[in-house]
Design a protein that fits this description.
6-stranded mixed β-sheet, Rossmann fold, 47% helix, alpha/beta, 9 helices
Length: 225
């Protein structure tokens, strides 16, 4: 079985509801579906996480097989709400970035990455939201569930987020927590990461593929947030 982990299209940064695709994200989703339709490999199953942006990215593909909450993103909101005041007190750079965090994607990325690195290192109260170890275990269970429930399938598409993609890479490559978080920050919107699952093992076939976006020649389609 080949598992195609597809990150959702660009979400609605700065909007009242982030968990909706932006117009650009909708276009990314359509381009992925069109590209998939041109390939000789057909998906035997199409599943999504439980987030709206996951389902919206999968919509152009047609009927879905099921919803797997194991592939939801980590609970960054809980960590953000718990840690922000302390980070502002401790780091003047964070305080400065917070002035523009709702309008400047780079400022948001700097604050968010600092916070998530602390979370992955266990420097944040593990009782806040879902801790790092629980998140990794959840994604592992999701992959195992896909393999078990779709035995005999050759190709399965899983629409998810950057965090679960990175967690899957950690499972395959046995990399450090720090490297795993670096990968999470590098996963592009609507990119595809492919894993081969068989005989109880996972092997990496490809990471962060955006050929279906790059072929258009439109560089604005290559987004991270």
């Amino acid at each position: 079985m080949i598992i195609h982990l597809v990150r959702h299209g660009q979400a609605s940064f700065g909007a009242e509801n982030y968990d909706l695709l932006s117009p650009l994200g909708e276009r990314q989703a359509r381009l992925f579906a069109e590209h998939a339709g041109r390939l000789s490999t057909a998906f035997d199953a199409i599943v999504t996480g439980n987030m709206v942006r996951h389902r919206q990215t999968a919509e152009p593909m047609g009927a879905r097989t099921g919803v797997y909450p194991e592939f939801d993103e980590f609970d960054a909101g809980a960590v953000w709400n718990h840690e922000m005041a302390r980070m502002i007190r401790e780091d003047p750079a964070v305080a400065a970035d917070m002035q523009a965090v709702l309008t400047d994607r780079l400022a948001f990325a700097r604050v968010f990455e600092k916070m998530m690195r602390r979370w992955a290192k266990g420097e944040i109260d593990p009782k806040v939201g879902e801790n790092w170890r629980a998140f990794l275990d959840r994604v592992r269970r999701g992959i195992e569930r896909v393999v078990a429930e779709h035995a005999g399938a050759r190709h399965v598409a899983v629409f998810t987020s950057a965090g679960p993609v990175a967690a899957a890479m950690r499972l395959v490559l046995d990399i450090s927590d720090e490297k795993t978080m670096e990968i999470a920050f590098a996963v592009r919107n609507a990119s595809v990461t492919r894993l081969r699952a068989g005989s109880g093992n996972l092997a990496l076939l490809g990471f962060n593929d955006t050929a279906h976006l790059e072929i258009t020649g439109d560089k604005t389609l290559l987004t991270l947030r």
